[in-house]
Amino acid sequence: MSSNPARIIQVVIASPLRQFFDYLPAEGKLAKDYLVGSRVQVPFGRRNITGIVIGHSDSSAIAANKLKAILSSLDSVALLDQEMLTLGRWMSQYYHHPLGDAILNLLPTKLRKGGAYDAYTQQYWQISQHGLGLDDQALSRAPKQQSLLNRLRQQALDEHSHAAIPEQQITAEGHSRTTALALAKKALILQSSRGYYPRDCQSLLQGEGNDVLPTLNTEQRNADQLIEQQLNHFATVLLEGITGSGKTEVYLRAIAKVLTQQHQALVLVPEIGLTPQTIQRFVARFKVPIAIFHSGLNDRERLAAWTASKEGRARIIIGTRSAIFTPTQNLGIIIIDEEHDNSYKQQDGIRYSARDIAIILAQKQKLPVILGSATPSLETYANVNANKYRHVVLQQRAGNAQPPAIELVDIRRQALHQGLSDQAISAINSTLAEGKQAMVFINRRGFAQLLMCHDCGWQAQCSQCDARLTLHQRPATLRCHHCDFRSAVPSHCPQCQSKNLMDVGQGTQRSAEALSDLFPQHTILRVDRDSTQGKQAMGAQIERINRGQAAILVGTQMLAKGHHFAALSLVLVLDVDQGLYSPDFRSAEKTLQLLTQVAGRAGRSDTLGRVLIQTHLPDHPLLINWQQHSYQGVKATLMAERELYSLPPITHMAILRADSTKPQQAMQVLSQLLRDHPANNHCQILGPLANIMEKRAGRHRAQLIIKSPQRKALHNTIEQFVQQFEAAKLPSSLRWSVDIDPQDVI
Ligand code: ADP
Ligand code: ZN
Ligand code: ZN
Fold first, then answer.
1. What pLDDT shows up at residue 120?
2. Which residues does 172 contact at the CB level (< 8 Å), separation at least 6?
3. pLDDT at 746 over 80
């Protein structure tokens, strides 16, 4: 083993191996020529792949003659700064995920695949004050420099154009970049870069800043002041405000202050909360460039927004989960809207929580995080109770709006018309008669819940999942909502050949149809994943709703979040019962959060809202508690249950998941692992258990649930399991993964 100063370059690549790899510089290069945080092309096995430099070293455990050399460097700047690399390392440790994967995950796809970083930046050159003052013969011994200097002087003196010229233009005129750099070294000319964007770029908008500021009410003012006091240092603030209480207005005020300090602001919203309406509020408020990240962007648009944020041109960054990894120049605040939302937790690959990562980042960069919600997660409440977070509450609706009146409708033994009770129908009737809108919420898209044979009881099942197929219309298909399997609707029962097939249960399509039969003279608008295909579809539908004519909206939870429909006064919820009885311990919490959000769409302007909840469980204690005391009232009951059963947030939890194409295999592997596992008295290990839906997308699933009151003990145990997995000879049909702080536990 030889030792020279920093001769070795440490590189991570996307690989399941939990380590970095040592490389030598290419011929004629030094290790330090490869910037930490930049991408390199390296030989690995028989392939050439993209990696990221994470450090240099003077020695390697590998013999020098066994080390390979880097093929090429892809960047002249670091794409990931030290802070981002530290975050990648932290994620790798905390989520027990391979290092290279964790770090590469921080880059947008286009860069991960080796695409050019500066595709959307242009270099500009202009003469400096110093250069302007120089005699126009002063550089006669360097004629190329003199010529370029004169060209830039002429440009600066021309009143009709910008002093800065794109580098492309000056090179096209015969000047070279080397000449420009030589002049820049003497401070005679200046370099700058400007973003240039792909055409019709949906990811970068110029804010207009032309709306009228409302006067804050007392509660909003308190929140505003509390947040102002937290600027420029680390703090987490829970902004708990009922739906329509003006939380967004509080965010906007905080952002305004951050922008005056020349800092950038990062706002995360749930996947279905990033509506054109939300974006419009930011555009209307701030006259600055805004970067937007959502799943509808293509790789080019994503990269353009990423670059603009990294270089500090985009002053506000709004996006869904993965936007938390957007690099910035000088971030001043992170805002997480609807902090309890499930979409902040990644459910595959590296299973991170964007909310938790926001807090880690804020701690490192010394800035505040605002967690906003009408229905905070129990995890967040626990942190408030432990005095880790500050807490400010908005209990009143902003402006003149009042909270809606909530009624439970007992539908036991009642005749239903396609799922609608008499009470619901007459409520819709009177709402429409007043010229208002009604919303019917049903958490299932498609036409009917299932297709069944009336003669023998056969039900259409997914062949890949332990699940029934949902019946859809236009086009008529049976679809699996878990794996997206599709098949034609059979004309007769495959089991007994009977033609007596019946569709059972409600979906959005059927409800919409039933409503248009009942109210033929009114517009019925269906909003669910099927009806909003295409980038603009959702926006177009929202616009129709906001024109405000009497109408009925039918939809899934896509309608539940973030929308502000001024004319909506009635909300009708068709089915909540399932959510209250699911085996997942978070199910009741999630159901009541969703109910609160849905109910919160009613009466957000001047008319009083009304919410009807149809249920077969009108005596359910949680439902009654929620109706009487709202979400704030039920949280104590939910928390007591977690305490009783030692569940998060009272304890910490992790899940080891395994799945296989072969039945029983995941169970067997986990059982063996558990038998070989060293005893640990600080952790409770449950399982292995088959998942409730044992087979999904053709894979048979099982899991080990690990709980501990101590984080450290939990992490140690998981680390031991990971090592066991790594050491074991596993069949190739088996996949395994670690889920720290899991959200879905069934
Ligand atoms: P939340 O985010 O808490 O659901 P929003 O911020 O969307 O609530 O506010 C609900 C509505 O009230 C919006 O139309 C908003 O413009 C309006 N609003 C917010 N604050 C005020 C205020 N202080 N005075 C009048 N209207 C307000
Ligand atoms: Zn049959
Ligand atoms: Zn399926």
1. 66
2. none
3. no
